[in-house]
Amino acid sequence: MRVRTPIIVGGRSAGARSACRSAVELGAAGCLALSFPLHPPGKPESSRLSELADAGVPTLVVQGGNDPFGRPEEFPDPLPGRTDLAVVPDGDHGFAVPRRSPITQDEAMDIVVEATLEWVVREIVGNGASV
User: Fold this and answer.
1) Banded model confidence at residue 1, pLDDT cuts 50, 70, 90
2) For residues 93 and 118, what is the distance between their CA atoms, to the nearest angstrom?
3) Which residue in 100, 93, 123 sits closest to 29, CA to CA?
4) What pLDDT score does 126 carry?
5) Kind of pairing between the strands at 30-34 and 8-12
6) In this structure, how many other beta carbons lie within 10 angstroms of the beta carbon of residue 28?
7) Edge-to-edge strands of the sheet including 30-34?
8) Tens of pLDDT along 43-57?
9) Which of 80, 51, 106 is nearest to 114 (CA)?
């Protein structure tokens, strides 16, 4: 008998929206939403939270602290469903951090990788999926 490897769908920005919309249909075990565009820049009233809320699978959002498409504090607390939020301090929509930031660009990328790995182990492997 072949053990099925779990699928995690994901994307960045518009790709994160697509991943959230297609996760259940694709039979994904989880969804990774990098720089989820919660709203167009300067238009918080045009929320796309419903797409995130309707993902239907455990979801990790990794968001820059200065993302004009939705700063971490603009996400609801608590987050909808089984959604977790990891923050890259001072990061923009592409996770770039300014020179004045207390973290380096390498440290910013380490946060993305470490948050993702921790989430996969906890939410995907920890829930019985074999990898």
Assistant:
1) low
2) 22
3) 123
4) 82
5) parallel
6) 22
7) 8-12, 30-34, 59-64, 83-88
8) 999 999 999 999 999
9) 106
The top-level CATH class assigned to 8-125 is: alpha beta
- How far is CA 116 from each of CA 58, 95, 120, 121, 122, rounded to the nearest angstrom? 12, 14, 6, 9, 10
What does pTM read for this prediction? 0.92
Report d(CA 54, CA 72) in Å as an integer: 19
* Residue at 70: amino acid letter: G
Domain borders along the chain are 8-125
Burial class of 113 by CB neighbour count within 10 A (0 to 12, 13 to 18, 19+): exposed
Tokens encoding 9: 């769908």
Instruction: Please report the pLDDT score of residue 127 as a whole number.
Output: 75
- Alpha carbon distances (Å) from 67 to 28, 35, 81, 113, 115: 27, 8, 22, 18, 18
Residue type, 55: A
